[in-house]
Amino acid sequence: MNKMFVTTVTGIVTPGVVKAMANLTREAGGEWLSSKVIKMDAWFAALMKVAIAGDKVASLQADFVQQFPELVFSFSDMAEVLSEHTRSLRFNVDCSDRPGLTREIVDILSNLDLEVEQMECNRVHVSTLGQTVFSAKLAVSVPDEISGDSIIELLENVSQDARVSLT
């Protein structure tokens, strides 16, 4: 029976390293169900959801560490508990930037026990406005009993000029 785990890896970007990790996974009989790779300057971070036969999990994890000693790996078993009564909603949040804004958005969602599936935040200086604008794109797992409108209302409270939309 296949088992799923999440691998988090960080390190300095080297050509072909992600492809080499994917090949190692395939050679061990596993597959990446999904992956995200982020690059910043000379660094990268990757998150891979891996499925592989249960008796090969430890071997593959050891192979990652052994064959890529310059990288830092973390392994977590996948939780099997997912509510059947949830849906994924996507929100855009735009407002003037200020310190603590990202933390406040995460706190609002955490207080509702919502799972943030993806969050991308950007800050851009707009010279014509003379200020920095904050923009976030969120994917959130939401129980059926919580409306998207109620989440929008709470997120709009982070700033007087906040504009939140459901996409």
TrEMBL record:
It comes from Shewanella loihica (strain ATCC BAA-1088 / PV-4). SUPFAM superfamilies: ACT-like. The keyword Cytoplasm applies. It is found in: Cytoplasm. The keyword Transcription applies. One of its GO terms (biological process) is regulation of DNA-templated transcription. PROSITE patterns: ACT. This is Glycine cleavage system transcriptional repressor. Its main location: cytoplasm. Gene3D superfamilies: 3.30.70.260. It holds the Pfam family ACT_6. InterPro entries: ACT-like_dom_sf (IPR045865), ACT_dom (IPR002912), GcvR (IPR016867), UPF0237/GcvR_regulator (IPR050990). The lineage of its organism: Bacteria, Pseudomonadati, Pseudomonadota, Gammaproteobacteria, Alteromonadales. GO terms for cellular component: cytoplasm. Residues 90-167 form the ACT domain. Keywords: Cytoplasm, Repressor, Transcription.
